[in-house]
Amino acid sequence: MFEVAWHEQPWPEVVRRLRTDFKKGLSSREAEKRLRDGLNKIDQEKRGSPLKKFIGQFTDTMVLVLLAATVVSGLLGEMVDAVTILAIVIVNAVLGFIQEYRAERSLEVIKKMSSPVATVIRDGRKQKIMAEKLVPGDVVVLETGDRVPADLRLIETYSLEIEESALTGESVPVNKTADVILPVNIPLAEMANRAFMGTVVTRGRGKGVVVATGMKTVMGEIAFMMKVSRPEPTPLQAKLDQLGNTLIVLCIGVCIFVSILGIVRGEPPLSMFMAGVSLAVAAIPEGLPAVVTVVLALGVQRMARRNAVVRKLSAVETLGCTTIICSDKTGTLTQNQMTVKRIATWEQEATITGEGYSLEGRFMAGQRVLDALANNAVSLLIKCAYHCNHAEIDLENREQVLYGDPTEGALLVMALKAGYKGSRDVVREVPFDSERKLMTVVVAGDNGFRVYVKGALDVLLDRCSRIARQAGTAVLTDEVRKRFLGLQQEWAQEAYRVLAFAYKDLSEAELEVSDDAALENDLILLGVGGMVDPPRPQARTSVSRCLRAGIIPVMITGDYPATALAVAKSVGITTKEQVIAGSEIDQLTDKELVNCAETVRVFARVSPQHKFRIVKALKKAGHVVAMTGDGVNDAPAVKEADIGIAMGINGTEITKEASCMVLADDDFSTIEAAVHEGRAIYDNIRKFVRYLLGCNVGEVLTMFLAAVLGMPLPLLPIQILWVNLVTDGLPAMALGVEPPEPGVMKRKPRPKNESLFARGLGLGILGRGLFISLTTLVIFTVGIVCGKLAGQVDLALARTMAFTYLVAAQLFYVLECRSEQFTPFEIGFFGNKFLIAAILSSAMLQGLAVYSHRLQPVFDTVPLCPWQWLMILGLAGSKMCYQAVKTVFSRKLLLYENYAKIRA
Ligand code: ATP
């Protein structure tokens, strides 16, 4: 299976053969050169060529029928008709093609935005790059929660465990070690010194050198794993597809009825057949799914500009229904710019000056500068903070960029402020995990080994038996415990994040017999550190906007209750003194949790399992839940939520994969912005559905009622197709990009199962359709009378009037469809420049159809006189005139009310 058995060679040999440096990695230049051999991705199914797609437009059954009808009318000598219909069909196909092409392109952009990243060492620096840019020889850093980005030969491992079910079907994680050399012929599942593309790091960390990329990886060879998944239709798209099918049946029924009735009444069969087919083509909203996709996709791009990267299109719809946002604290509501401000050992308290990750700052004991490294316990605490730490600070960069966990970054900065430096080589490690709330490393000491542990104070206290003193150690008494717990409570109330530190020394023999649990027992407590993490400046505003929009923000954090409550109050999530801790959740039944979850706004000290239970409880209570997550263990809760949200900066790859949306900036305000966009996009979908269906119902009813009332055909087949062309395409698309209406975030969330036609939309569409059809018939009748009075024998004038009226009525209607709450006089006419352009071009095209000498014979039109225009435009705009009067009147009323109020 493998070209080279990399697992059979010691890793320095692998590094040598791949001409790389295990410390510095490849140089960017070399990596670029190697990239010429191919990107690190599994080849995708070839996309259909644009030409194929264009031809695909003609395979639609209705279009085929129309084409057949065109051929028939051509054969019967109606050449002008045949050519025109053909031209219209082609233009329609072009429009359809453009819509579909745009939809596909936008979906591709979305896919790109959420493509995986990998951490590599290049040019001697740790950096994040797109996983597809990896090349053989790259040194990749693996952390818990990463998806392995290529096939690797491991060169460094710390408690590394990888779940390889994607390849082996075995879901129990496998231990990995870099230092073994394995026989050539062993099964994949036993290759302990290798990591394979697509598998997941469930614990620990490590480094590996890339030995194969893209299709050369094991995953690439078993390419069936990665069959390109077509994006699933969103619930709304599926519903619209269904609706489309129902409408097709209905329209065809009406068209057959209209045709037969006409033939029975003595109209020429061919013209009735053509009218029936044209009507069906015009009335069936075949473009609806494509427009929905384009609108959703464009919305997604708008969201991306506001830092919300949507991974699943369906999230856009669900966002508008969100009733609860469960948010992490650290980094989402706070800035994740931590600074250690104070420390305390048994005998020494100190404050630390300086802000952010800047290295300028000093340790102060009251007004006195403290030589931190001269104090035994303080110095050990600083060493613990430094060694039990993976963060790195790029000191060459003036911005002081931090790589790694911000909590650890703050601790590193503290140690550097104290002037401590040293090798950070680790002999053994028990990685941090939010369940244990601890992290442990073993480093080589002067006489043997030293274990450093840091983590939550309450957890650590249970594992310590002694306390470090200025000189030596002492037994950890209840008094000591009480003092530190009191200190933590005090600091937490001031929104400090508190971390505790401990250590112990071990001989080599002791280390050898200690398992992970033993390592973290019988420790010597060093003291605590308190760090600040200021709330994000926007958080308070966003929380209050959510509350106004009927969305409840809830904080779910691993931090202490007092810290959580202090932060929650400062951003306005709660005003009550109520917080529920993870341990209390354990005591609740699912039913009790449902009751509690609806009233409590702050959950603290929770583990990922608690998060999962909370999401389930809230969903059970009927809420639509958005839930944020970052760590690998958060993935189940994020997946369970209606809207799973992952952190772009601090989130693990696995959580990102489980999510519907990724916050590029980890900011709570971005969720609020995404909800805002989500609501606006859904509004827009309702707008163009209202418009498209209103128009189509109008067209079908016009023909249907005329047939029932025994009137002649009010529109010729070509005219029907033309109306469809000039009114359906551009104006509907333009409605899809309407800017959000005012007050989008002032109304309650939309119920999840609400039909698209709820809140009067269905009736509104039918009503408007009926209105358009009846008024068209009135205009048509007036046209017949006018024609008769003028001594004309044919129906050219009446049809021109009905034809033009139908276009005008729809162009006025599109302006009304811009908002369901406000009239155009309230929101203004010029807010959507695409719509104005679309209306103007449609009106111009209609003008051409009526006045161009070349087109008059094609459309069988005659010029209209001013009073006929007046009548057409007056009736078409009558609803709007009525709205104008109403607006002016209600404004006056409002003024009067205000006046009355002032007088009172
Ligand atoms: P949030 O859930 O809002 O992100 P959090 O970061 O406090 O908040 P976790 O990451 O689950 O939540 O951490 C839980 C606890 O574990 C923290 O309160 C802290 O006491 C401890 N802790 C956090 N990071 C580390 C770390 N790198 N090493 C050791 N202990 C840590």
Shape: elongated
Distinct bound molecules: adenosine-5'-triphosphate
Q: How many extended strands?
A: 28
Q: In what range is the share of β-strand residues?
A: 15-25%
Name of the CATH homologous superfamily of the domain at 258-301 and 683-739 and 756-878:
Calcium-transporting ATPase, transmembrane domain
- Uncertain runs: 224-229
CATH architecture of the domain at 258-301 and 683-739 and 756-878: Up-down Bundle
Helicity, as a percent range: 40-55%
Structural class: alpha+beta
What do the pLDDT scores average to?
A: 87
The main β sheet shows up as: 11 strands, mixed
| Rg, Cα atoms, Å | 35 Å
Draw up the topology in text.
Layout: H1 11-17, H2 28-35, H3 50-56, H4 61-75, H5 79-113, E1 117-122, E2 125-130, E3 139-143, E4 151-163, H6 165-168, E5 174-175, E6 194-195, E7 200-212, H7 218-221, H8 235-264, H9 269-283, H10 288-305, E8 308-310, H11 314-319, E9 324-327, E10 339-344, E11 349-352, E12 363-365, E13 368-369, H12 376-387, E14 392-394, E15 401-403, H13 406-417, E16 428-433, E17 438-445, E18 448-455, H14 457-461, E19 464-468, E20 473-475, H15 478-493, E21 497-506, H16 508-513, H17 516-519, E22 523-532, H18 539-548, E23 552-556, H19 561-571, E24 580-581, H20 582-587, H21 590-599, E25 602-604, H22 608-620, E26 625-629, H23 635-640, E27 643-647, H24 653-658, E28 661-663, H25 668-708, H26 717-736, H27 761-789, H28 796-816, H29 824-827, H30 833-851, H31 855-859, H32 866-876, H33 878-903
Parallel strand pairs: 9-23, 9-26, 19-22, 23-25, 24-25, 26-27, 27-28
Antiparallel strand pairs: 1-2, 1-3, 3-7, 4-5, 4-6, 4-7, 8-28, 10-11, 10-22, 11-12, 12-13, 14-15, 16-17, 17-18, 18-21, 19-20, 21-22
Helix pairs in contact: 3-5, 4-5, 4-9, 5-10, 5-26, 8-9, 8-10, 8-25, 9-25, 9-26, 10-25, 12-13, 15-19, 18-25, 21-22, 25-26, 25-27, 25-28, 26-28, 26-30, 27-28, 28-30, 28-32
The structure holds adenosine-5'-triphosphate.
Keywords: ATP-binding, Calcium, Calcium transport, Cell membrane, Ion transport, Magnesium, Membrane, Metal-binding, Nucleotide-binding, Translocase, Transmembrane, Transmembrane helix, Transport
EC number: 7.2.2.10
Family: Belongs to the cation transport ATPase (P-type) (TC 3.A.3) family. Type IIA subfamily.
